[in-house]
Specification:
Layout: H1 12-19, E1 24-27, E2 44-55, E3 58-65, H2 72-84, H3 90-98
Antiparallel strand pairs: 1-2, 2-3
Length: about 100
Amino acid sequence: NYIYQYNDKLDIQKMIEASKYFIGTHNFKSFTKCLKEYEENDYVRTIYDISFDLEDDILIIKFIGSGFMRYMVRNLVGTLIEVGQNKKTCEDIIKILNG
């Protein structure tokens, strides 16, 4: 339902590869707004699939999961864009998920 306009080239293959690290059950605290009243396990979610489709020069990224927290998908996409810009690597994603 949301569009982010980015006017430069992205390495979509790197983004697809990096997205595989988000699939599965993880603590996504680093990718959402942290709330004081949340317990640590409240940040655990499962992402079942992430798909990428290119339609008329629009890259559509679809997330399927058990549930999403505020800003979570926005931050995941932002991280994938940084991978596509060669600013972050798959290793960076692993560090963030484990952090």
